[in-house]
Design a protein that fits this description.
With 283 residues, the chain is of the alpha/beta class. It has helices spanning 21-32, 36-44, 91-106, 122-134, 138-141, 150-166, 173-180, 183-197, 207-220, 242-248, 263-279; strands at 2-6, 49-54, 70-73, 112-118, 201-204, 228-230. Strand 5 (201-204), helix 9 and strand 6 (228-230) form a beta-alpha-beta unit.
Length: 283
């Protein structure tokens, strides 16, 4: 399992209920073993890798003890620019993030890739990518995220519309990813492309990782037939659940939807369930 982390310039516009400092704090929690996904990974022997793709604060390098989460430093920059005033990243920065994801998966053992993420304001990035790539109104793609009230949701939608307007020329998948995406999302897209090329199984849980897969499908082109995606558990989002994006990405349902888990812990639980199904010859 790989958790991709990055910060976003949009966070300064009040699109999230939490400050961007929470990103690095959660990264440290993953590495210390205190997060739910860390506990599940440790309990069931899942290899957990946390990647600093663009966290605003520097994460100190460290050696992981056997069985503990591993840290990879693949920072392109300390957070993206504010997409409401122009591109979130340059084409070169986006290409670097994509390549980081490709190289990362090349070095991973196994045949299953579990996608996780962490980044304050990255639900905004996912909303922007869904709106631009699928031609949907931003209001239909935007919700409360981590807990905005009604006024906060309206403010978020207004800021995201500004981002779409400021980057109106970014219509191709790669241009949209650079203009509206995040470093952790672009790195995830690269990881998805490489995993598809290697015909690995990819497990997706949550809005942001689903948006990364959605962004990767048109880039993959002919190789997309190798992309095997099964969005598993996680909490249904009243404003936009993973099934909406899954339908657009032609992905099948997960093995056991409806459990009350966060998106990273839900993904780990799904992987554990699939391991048992594979052992019993049912998957």
């Amino acid at each position: 399992m790989v958790v991709f982390a990055g910060d976003h310039g949009l966070a300064a516009r009040g699109v999230s209920a939490f400050p961007s400092d929470v990103t690095w704090q959660m990264v440290e929690n993953f590495l210390a073993g205190g997060a739910a996904v860390s506990v599940l990974a440790r309990q069931y022997g899942l290899a957990l890798t946390v990647v600093d793709c663009g966290v605003a604060r520097d994460i100190a390098p460290r050696e992981a003890a056997p069985g503990q989460p591993r840290l990879l430093l693949r920072k392109v920059a300390p957070g993206t620019q504010d997409a409401s005033t122009g591109p979130a990243m340059s084409a070169a920065q986006c290409a670097q993030a994509l390549n980081n994801g490709i190289e990362l998966v090349r070095d991973l053992p196994g045949n299953v890739l579990l996608l996780g993420e962490m980044g304050i304001a990255n639900t905004s990035v996912a909303s922007l990518l869904l709106a631009r790539l699928c031609g949907l109104p931003i209001a239909e793609c935007t919700g409360a995220g981590t807990g905005l009230d009604a006024a906060g949701i309206e403010r978020k939608r207004a800021v995201l519309q500004q981002a779409l307007d400021a980057n109106a020329a970014a219509t191709t998948p790669l241009d949209a990813l650079a203009a509206l995406g995040g470093y952790e999302v672009a790195t995830m897209v690269g990881a998805v492309l490489q995993a598809a090329h290697e015909r690995r199984v990819i497990l997706v849980d949550g809005f942001i990782t689903s948006a990364a897969v959605l962004g990767g499908l048109p880039i993959a082109a002919p190789s997309s037939a190798a992309l095997r995606v099964r969005p598993p558990l996680g909490r249904a989002r009243a404003w936009l659940d993973a099934g909406t994006i899954a339908g657009r990405a032609a992905a099948g349902p997960g093995p056991a939807p409806g459990r009350r888990l966060g998106r990273r812990a839900g993904l780990a639980a799904a992987a554990i369930g699939l391991r048992h199904l594979a052992r019993d010859g049912e998957f």
